[in-house]
Known about the structure:
Elements: H1 14-17, E1 27-33, E2 39-46, E3 53-56, E4 64-69, E5 76-78, E6 81-84, E7 92-98, H2 99-104, E8 112-113, E9 117-121, E10 137-141, E11 147-149, E12 161-163, E13 174-178, E14 182-187, E15 190-196, H3 202-220, E16 230-238, E17 247-251, E18 257-263, H4 268-273, H5 276-282, H6 294-311, H7 317-332, H8 342-347, H9 352-374, H10 378-389, H11 398-409, H12 414-423, H13 431-437, H14 454-461, E19 471-475
Parallel strand pairs: 1-10, 15-16, 16-18
Antiparallel strand pairs: 1-2, 2-7, 3-6, 4-7, 5-6, 8-9, 9-13, 10-12, 11-13, 14-15, 14-19, 17-18
Amino acid sequence: MVNRMFVRIALISLPLLAIASSASAALHYSAELSDDAQRLSVSMCTDHPLAPGTLRTGSQNARLVSLRGDGSSRPDQRGDRIAHERLDAGQCVQYSIDSRAAAESDRYRLGWRADQYLMLKLTDWLWRPSKIPAGSTVTLHLPQGWSASVPWPPMDRSGRRYRLPDTPRGWNGYTAFGRFEERRMTLPGGQLRVSVLPTANARQTEQLHDWMALNVRAVLTSSGRLPLPDAQVLVVPLPGNRSPTPWGQVSRGGGSALRLFAGLDAPESVRNEDWTLSHELAHLFHPYLGDSGRWMSEGLASYYQNVLRARSGILTAERAWSKLDAGFGRGLNERSTRGQRLVDVASGYRGTMRVYWSGAAYWLEADAALREHHGTTLDSVLAEFARSHLPAYSRWQAAQFADELDRLAGTRLFAPLYERYARSTRFPDLTDTYQRLGLGSGVDRLRLRDRAPALAVREAIMTASPSVSVASTRRRDDG
């Protein structure tokens, strides 16, 4: 069997292909950060003979300062690529990067704090083949007193050894090394590895960890379990900023991860009620759906950011319905993309309000229909999807995701609803859904009516599953 790990030069002879080992050549990376954090030295070694191939990073910030190889490998940098010849079992390609220069290239100028931390994209330093073979690993060697926050699933509790999954090379992922503490929140179904980059105020760090625990409890009100066995959470504090969470993002390169920017001067009560963290955590319930499926993924997070917070008591049910209605109103009033199909608008990163809140309407319609007609819930269907398919290390098509939800639920609901929404050229008409749930006569006409059976379904959507305790364990590695 030809080894498929490397992108091969097109004109390659059959005798050369025969060199590749029949066994899969797992790769073992070892990365050592210098004591001053200004250089990161990496060895990529193979445990089986490895055919000639190409390593790439995908970033212009990956600044090599040295490159060499064992035996006859003869590694050679060609732009953003390292080409190498055959490696025998146990042989390595070794390189170093200017880690400070890479960190300081961060567009927000938050990548480097002298003697405190550095934050790097995976593509800033990890040269890799197009495919990562099974069994590949990463081992870290850090300065005394430094810890790591990385997206890879840990192999033990040392904070030093990780499994390297085969996620697409173009997917974003972030690593941070510094004088901070990684805390592992042990949950039903998995763990969150939470790191807050160093702040000058220990009390503010504790407030950020409390904020995390509060929102994690909200996520657990969906099914009582974390949808993933492991996820990285990296919090970047912003001194002098009063916005509770100016920005957050989910990344999937190397594994599932959240990166959140938190204003340190935001009042604690304002931060705890902010929707951003619940929104980003809700993205853990689905696979990567690509640009054309952005309306589904952002819609699910926008729907759940209100539902889950109501279930956990952060919001009242009435306020959660009011926030959903306000969001639908913003989507309805988004005029710039009317006449264009939702799937096309989402792919072009336009019409944000229409994209997010059309998606939220999709999930509300699906959740209500499941509860009214199928004897199940969106929570249950997504939990089954998580058990069957997450973590997902490749992209799912949005239509494929809808089909699979139907298969798991035993319904013909998600796919037809997907087709209707994806082709729609204006915001969906929610009049019928509002009336069935006793929410009034349509968007911007919210009026909660206590009439069964509408009341029963409406209350059930905002009602939590049995409460789940969250344990937080501290770990600090000092060398």
